[in-house]
């Protein structure tokens, strides 16, 4: 029996869910819910209007944190990538700050911004800023010398050069970097919400467990986190595919 | 003494490689495309055969089928009486480029097929072929530090080291500059003359074919059929300006349907 | 434009010092100018670092963090590479399993804490599980990409010399994919370092992450907080740097020729 190709992953997931449910049924009285319990939990959240509210809260923080990081890091990173000496100056410092988990910034974030949204947004900002700097710097390095020479050959003004040579050349790589960093932002927001705020999907997970061991909500929250994270990633990928950004592959 | 008909068979010869009514079709976008049609060829032991034809005609496809990388859809290919059913170390293919393993040194590459040999024998063999392709001193060099011509030499040495019955070469000098190409041709001839392997050499370069081959197989454009087989009866070393050379070259150009004056 | 002249080798060191000096000065003067009582000055952080080093607990904390990374990351490498190679080699299998991975991947390891605690209880093992989760996916992805981008010519050449599939995997596919795999492993190590610190802030009682949160909770010692952050940064940097050195070994260097 040949299962059509498109259907195979679906059947595989269904099989995993069945195994999961059976494993749970065999061990009654333990905390982890099965897929049916999880589904029930999600319905619960929908009914209370909490799901929508929490998703919006998390997305809101991601938008602000990721957005501000991108707005700052990309121009800065492009400039640093262009001016070798600037890069030499700051590269080690960036590499020093990058391995510091955004969560380790929590005490400082709370000190500066108090407990709440702004602190969470700051954490996301920190988590996205350094990787985006590096992405922008490397995007500039990746511009083929022939493009730069051609631009100079045609006597472009600095402004025209940036808009007609630099920008188009770096956009494809930047998009990929933005997609990856958006993924990071999504990871950070959930973690940040588990520690320092009172709403959002991360908070849902912590709260559901603390206030009554509602593991169906915990796992339900995890599933939703996964789903939205995947949607964000797919959304960014489709942006990469937009025809007008596709010139890098046609150049060969 | 140019051949007239499509098939040339000398009595008693042609027992190394026999190709009989070889055909090959493949599917593309739901359509069946014929790549090879009714190819018949007999190759004797120690012969140097060149296969030429217009670009895209299927020369490489033919070579890949002969080497066992692609299956034929009709007809047969036998080597020493045995049918070809897949890749085999008894017949090694040298690729046009990127055929050397970049993570191995020259030595490592040449010794690649020799893992079953005891160490001393392996080292001897490697040393012998390093010398044969004139890469002494580069044994411990990695391919990224070698020129294109040197990498092709490594491939040839690697192929010869396992003592194959047939050596297939798929436009091996196509990615090299013209000066290196000339040098590599004489190197290949030198090796062939000392080891007398059976060689089947695909090229799009007419001069190359006339300079190297005992016989030249001319393929038509797709689907590839054997248009003709030309025997090059000039003994080595061949003079590129000799009248016979030029005659054969022009004959070959004519066979392919190309003008010899632009 | 100063980007046109080629900078000399010593300039790399020079400009870094200049930038670091500027930042330190900026830091020092912001603290002095705002008259904050809580946020530490560079000097107090320096003293805090000395204090940590002398306290001996620092070394235990560093050891704990590194140990957890070693175990979680090690497990991810041990399981992830064969799994990833398999997925890369069998695209049909990858097509079935990949969607599951894509759904699991965006879930922050930290979100797994409650579930991890159910399975492993509070403590080390839960933390190691989280690190494993975070490191697993980049390694698998890198292996899949590495295997699927092995040149068909090399595969044909391997087959030509009579290699069976297991031998082909060992002698051609794995070496050919290794540069890509190493990139994924290095990224996974970076992630492991981020996860361990986060996990230690929430779920365990030792390690550098715990040091950060504890310094604040017991006494608002922000000088220790910043000192701990710097140490985290330095160790992470050292880990990454050492790993990059692996990329210079001759038998993989070929794969990094064009890397920036």
Task: Give a quick rundown of the structure.
The complex is a heterotrimer of chains A (252), B (262) and C (260). Chain B is an alpha/beta fold and 262 residues long.
Helix content of chain C: over 70%
Shape of chain A: globular
* Straight-line N-to-C gap of chain A: 43 Å
SSE succession of chain A: HHHHHHHHHHH
> Mean of the pLDDT scores of chain A?
88
| Stretches with pLDDT under 50, minimum 5 residues of chain C | none
Q: Low-confidence parts of chain A lasting 5 or more residues at pLDDT below 50?
A: none
Task: Tell me how many strands of chain C there are.
Answer: 0
Straight-line distance between termini of chain C: 22 Å
- Main beta-sheet annotation of chain A: none
The share of residues in extended strands of chain C comes to under 5%
Q: Helix and strand succession of chain C? A: HHHHHHHHHHH
> In angstroms, what is the radius of gyration of chain A?
23 Å
Mean pLDDT of chain C: 89
Radius of gyration of chain C: 23 Å
DSSP summary, beta strand count of chain A = 0
What does this structure look like?
The complex is a heterotrimer of chains A (252), B (262) and C (260). Chain A is an all-alpha fold and 252 residues long. Chain A is built from 11 helices and no strands. The longest helix of chain A is centred in the C-terminal third of the chain and has 39 residues. Chain A is globular. By secondary structure, chain B is of the alpha/beta class. Helices cover 31% and strands 24% of the residues of chain B. Chain B starts with 16 loop residues before the first strand and ends in a 6-residue tail after the last helix. Chain C is globular and about 75 Å long. Chain C is mainly α and 260 residues long. The chains are: A mainly alpha (252), B alpha/beta (262), C mainly alpha (260). Chains A and C meet through helix 1, helix 4, helix 5, helix 8 and helix 9 of A and helix 1, helix 4, helix 5, helix 8 and helix 9 of C.
């Amino acid at each position: 029996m040949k299962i059509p190709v498109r259907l195979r992953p679906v059947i595989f997931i269904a099989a995993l869910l069945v195994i999961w449910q059976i494993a749970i049924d065999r061990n009654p009285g333990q905390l982890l819910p099965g897929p049916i319990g999880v589904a029930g939990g999600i319905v619960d959240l929908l009914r209370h209007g909490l799901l929508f509210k929490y998703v919006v809260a998390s997305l809101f923080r991601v938008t602000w944190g990721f957005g501000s990081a991108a707005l700052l890091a990309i121009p800065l990173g492009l400039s640093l990538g262009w001016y070798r000496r600037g890069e030499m100056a700051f590269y080690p410092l960036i590499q020093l700050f990058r391995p510091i988990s955004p969560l380790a910034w929590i005490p400082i974030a709370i000190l500066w911004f108090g407990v709440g949204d702004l602190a969470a947004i700051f954490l996301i900002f920190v988590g996205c800023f350094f990787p985006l700097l590096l992405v922008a710097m490397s995007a500039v390095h990746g511009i083929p010398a022939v493009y730069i020479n051609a631009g100079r050959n045609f006597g472009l003004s600095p402004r025209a050069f940036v808009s007609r040579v630099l920008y188009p050349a770096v956009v494809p790589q930047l998009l990929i970097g933005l997609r990856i960093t958006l993924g990071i932002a999504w990871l950070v927001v959930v973690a940040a919400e588990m520690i320092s705020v009172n709403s959002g999907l991360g908070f849902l997970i912590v709260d559901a467990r603390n206030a009554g061991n509602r593991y169906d909500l915990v796992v339900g929250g995890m599933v939703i986190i996964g789903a939205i994270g995947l949607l964000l990633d797919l959304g960014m990928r489709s942006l990469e595919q937009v025809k007008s950004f596709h010139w890098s592959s046609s150049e060969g | 003494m140019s051949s007239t008909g499509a098939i040339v068979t000398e009595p008693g010869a042609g027992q190394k490689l026999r190709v009989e009514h070889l055909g090959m079709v493949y599917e593309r976008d739901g359509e069946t495309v014929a790549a090879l049609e009714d190819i018949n060829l007999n190759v004797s032991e120690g012969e140097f055969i060149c296969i030429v034809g217009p670009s895209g005609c299927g020369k490489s496809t033919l070579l890949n089928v002969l080497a066992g990388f692609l299956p034929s859809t009709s007809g047969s290919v036998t080597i020493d009486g045995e049918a070809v059913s897949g890749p085999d170390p008894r017949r090694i293919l040298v690729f046009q480029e990127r055929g050397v393993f970049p993570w191995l040194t020259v030595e490592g590459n040449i010794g690649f097929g020799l893992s079953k040999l005891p160490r001393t024998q392996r080292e001897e063999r490697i040393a012998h072929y390093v010398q044969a392709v004139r890469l002494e001193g580069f044994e411990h060099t990695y391919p990224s530090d070698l020129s294109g011509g040197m990498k092709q030499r490594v491939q040839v040495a690697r192929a010869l080291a396992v003592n194959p019955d047939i050596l297939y070469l798929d436009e091996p000098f196509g990615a090299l500059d013209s000066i290196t190409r000339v040098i590599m041709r004489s190197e290949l001839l030198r090796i062939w003359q000392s080891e007398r392997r059976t060689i089947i050499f695909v090229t799009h370069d007419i001069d190359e074919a006339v300079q190297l081959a005992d016989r030249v197989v001319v393929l038509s454009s797709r689907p590839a059929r054997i248009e003709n087989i030309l025997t090059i009866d000039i003994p080595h070393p061949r003079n590129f300006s000799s009248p016979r050379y030029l005659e054969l070259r022009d004959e070959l150009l004519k066979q392919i349907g190309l003008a010899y004056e632009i | 434009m100063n980007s046109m002249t080629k900078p000399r080798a010593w300039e790399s060191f020079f400009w870094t010092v200049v930038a670091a000096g500027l930042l330190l000065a900026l830091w020092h003067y912001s603290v002095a100018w705002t008259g904050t009582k809580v946020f530490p000055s560079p000097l107090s952080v320096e003293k805090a670092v000395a204090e940590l080093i002398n306290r001996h607990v620092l070394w235990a904390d560093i050891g704990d963090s590194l140990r957890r990374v070693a175990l979680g990351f090690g497990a991810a490498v041990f399981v992830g590479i064969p799994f990833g190679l398999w997925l890369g080699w069998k695209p049909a299998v990858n097509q079935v399993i990949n969607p599951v991975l894509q759904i699991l991947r965006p879930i922050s390891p930290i979100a797994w804490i409650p579930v991890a605690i159910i399975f492993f209880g509070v403590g080390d093992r839960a933390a190691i599980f989280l690190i494993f989760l975070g490191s697993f996916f980049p390694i698998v992805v890198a292996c899949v990409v590495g295997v699927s981008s092995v040149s068909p010519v090399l595969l044909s050449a391997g087959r030509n010399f009579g290699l069976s599939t297991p031998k082909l995997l060992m002698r051609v596919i794995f070496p050919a994919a290794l540069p890509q795999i190493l990139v994924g492993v290095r990224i996974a190590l970076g992630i492991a370092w981020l996860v361990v610190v986060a996990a230690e802030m929430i779920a365990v009682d030792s390690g550098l992450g715990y040091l950060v949160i504890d310094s604040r909770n017991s006494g608002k010692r922000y000088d220790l907080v910043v000192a701990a952050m710097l140490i985290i940064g330095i160790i992470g940097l050292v880990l990454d740097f050492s790993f990059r050195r692996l990329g210079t070994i001759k038998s993989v260097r070929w794969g990094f020729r064009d890397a920036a």
